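Forum > Structural Biology > Help requests

Title: Can anyone predict the 3D structure of Pentatricopeptide repeat-containing protein?

Hi all, first post here. I have the sequence for Pentatricopeptide repeat-containing protein but no way to get a structure on my laptop. I'd be grateful if someone could post the structure tokens.
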Amino acid sequence: MKAAGVAPDVVVFNTLLAGFVADGRFEDAFELTREMERRDCPPNAVSYTTLMQGLGSKGRVDEVMRVFVEMRRKGCTPDSVTYGALVSAFCKAGRLSQGYEFLDSMSRDGLRVDPGVYLGFFVAHEKKEQLEECLELMERMRECRCPPDLSIYNVVIRLSCKLGETKQAMALWNEMENSGLSPGVDTFAIMVNGLVGQGSLVDACNYFKDMVGRGLFVAPQYGVLKDLLNALVRDEKLELAKDVWGCIASRGCELNVSAWTIWIHALYAKKHVKEACSYCLDMLEAGLMPQPDTFAKLMKGLKKLYNRQIAAEITEKVRLMAEERHVSFKMYKRRGVKDLEEKPKSKRRKGQKRSRGRQTVQGQSREHADLSDSVDDEEFPS
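Reply #1:
Sure, ran it for you. Structure tokens for Pentatricopeptide repeat-containing protein below:
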């Protein structure tokens, strides 16, 4: 630009300034503002706001305040975005009283306050577990004709569940929907996880099924599914867990290997071995191959139940699927099939007692291999 005889304007300088701030080069950014003064192109509200946003993100609140004072001294009027940067910086630093002072200043100056400015207060109150303050602030927003948005409801619902106020969380949910807001995936995940954490499993199932019914259950929510199913099985609510799984399957949701593994492992962990095997067969019928550790768990559980028929059925299906897909079956065989092999019983003379200490070297090595291949040490009643 200089070679072409074109002088940079404030837009060009602000672009450079944003680059310095994004890169954390604040000394260069401050020097650039001085250069702008020397070139008779003084910083404007965008310039100062960019600096404040960058400093605030780094927790340098005192410097944010100095920039704001300098801005006012230079006769540059702050706008809503500037005040938003100030509020965000002070809320992030936990200095809420000063944040509220700037919020009041916005109201006095007749500036519009959007929900994004309020969000910083809610996040700060959540960290301090101040539910009452959150509810009061929501009421203040309504009085100012600035209704809470989905992000704010997410924060307050999460805090309500965390503090055990599940009825309050559900009341907020109803209020949110009545105001015309539609809960998204994040909102459902927050509610289900919160209810599971408080042991409200029936309510958690209802919200989860609602999420599935709205077509919002996709692969990233498998963590929610895992926590819910494990909690239900752990609490001996097996039929309710089956109902949740049936809801997913009947709605045509994508059930990949991870989803099936979560369900099968949840059943196995609480010793529902036959049910776990039944769903493993369903998984194979759906054209999905279980992971080697899942296979090994089921073989171990079936061995303890002396159920070789189901074990043989699962093994044969896995072997055929591995052959069709050109996948080595050695890993599966090493992890589980050896446990099912019939071992010849040694004949002993009449009256002769079995010696527990007498083992062949071959028997010792086989036992060592079985132990090293074991996935877990969970014991099942025979």
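The chain is about 65% helix and 0% strand. Residues 266-341+372-382 form one domain.
Shout if anything looks off.
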